[in-house]
Every structure is written in C-alpha cells, then in structure tokens.
Amino acid sequence: MSIISAFIVLVILAATCICDEKVKWLKLSNGCIIGHNNQVHTNVDNIWLCMHLCNTAVGFICNSFEYHASSKKCQLSEDYSNSTAYAYFKVPCPYQGWEYWQRYTLGSRLDIPNACIKVTLKNFIATHSNIGSKNYCFLICLFTSGCKSVNYHSGNQKCTLTKATYATGTLYVPCPGYVYVEKH
C-alpha cells in the first residue's frame, strides 16, 4: 500500500468517527410513530439494550425507537419526527407507557409536533404575527442573532423566537396547536 492510499484510508476512517460523534439522541416520554416499525423486539430488558439494537440494526438505518418498559417491547424505525411519517408522529402517544427516542445530527433541524418550549424573560427574543408556516418561522430564527428555537402555532400564525433548547429549557408536551422547531 502506498503512502497516498494509506492517507486516503485514514481520512475516510477519521471522517466516519467525526460523523458518529456528532449524532445525539432526543428522548420524548409518551411519544410514538404509529405503524412505522421496521423491527419489533420482545423481552428487551431495558432502554439501553433497545438503543443498542437500534444502533446495530441490519437492513435499514434505524433513526428512532420506542420502548415500553412494562412489556419489554422495543420497536425500531427508520422514520422519525422530521421524516415522511411526520403525520403519524404522536405526542402524546395514544398508547400508554411508550418512551420515544430519535437520533439527530448536530447541524440539523428538530421538529416536534404538539410541543412548545417554556418562554421566559431570560430566553425570549421576539414574537411575530401573521407568519404563514413553521418553515417561514424557522427561517426568521435562522437570521436572528441568538435564536435557537421557535414555538409556532399554525392556528393563529404566531411565531415565538427563543434562546432555549429542549436541553436548556422546559419542553411542554402536549402543547396543543404548537410545533416546536430547534436548530442544532
């Protein structure tokens, strides 16, 4: 193997490791994607084993999982809250006891239906009225200094920009009529 070939292999391996380090998990208690399971496992003793099954899934890219502690059931899915299954993503889940986890990559956008972040004097930036979509609301956030998330209500077309994230603020689920959108 030449030095150039060895360098190319090293660069590819380093890039893979960097990408893996940028993937995080979001937990939503009492959330689920109805009817979009690629694999279902039974007798899974804990949430961490379920996460491991998702991380090592074969035949599809596992982007989310749901775990039910009392039944020890683990459901793996290639879908997640921002995917084409968005309409099937439910918070709260109509079935009791499920905990939902999804991958997200740093630099990506996170959309959570029926959720909102608590707005405080410390994290409030601005509220805009007559905003026609969550995408336009999020675009305003992208061009606003310090903005990390939005609460968007499609019914009254209200867009609230905040400095909070689900990790630093209080996420309310359910929050009827709202969509929470966060940039990473």
Polypeptide structure, described:
- With 184 residues, this protein is of the alpha+beta class.
- Helix content is 20%, strand content 34%.
- It contains three helices and 14 strands.
- The N terminus is likely disordered.
- It holds the Pfam family PAN_1.
What structural keywords apply?
184 residues, 2 domains, 14 strands, disordered N terminus, Hepatocyte Growth Factor, 5-stranded antiparallel sheet, alpha+beta, 3 helices
The CATH topology of the largest domain is given as Hepatocyte Growth Factor
Q: Approximately what portion of the residues adopt beta-strand conformation?
A: 25-35%
Task: Identify the overall geometry.
Answer: elongated
The total of helices stands at: 3
Q: Give the topology string: H per helix, E per strand.
A: HEEEHEEEEEEEHEEEE
**CATH homologous superfamily caption of the largest domain:** Hepatocyte Growth Factor
Keywords: Signal
Domain Apple: 19-93, 116-184
Protein name: Apple domain-containing protein
Signal peptide: 1-19
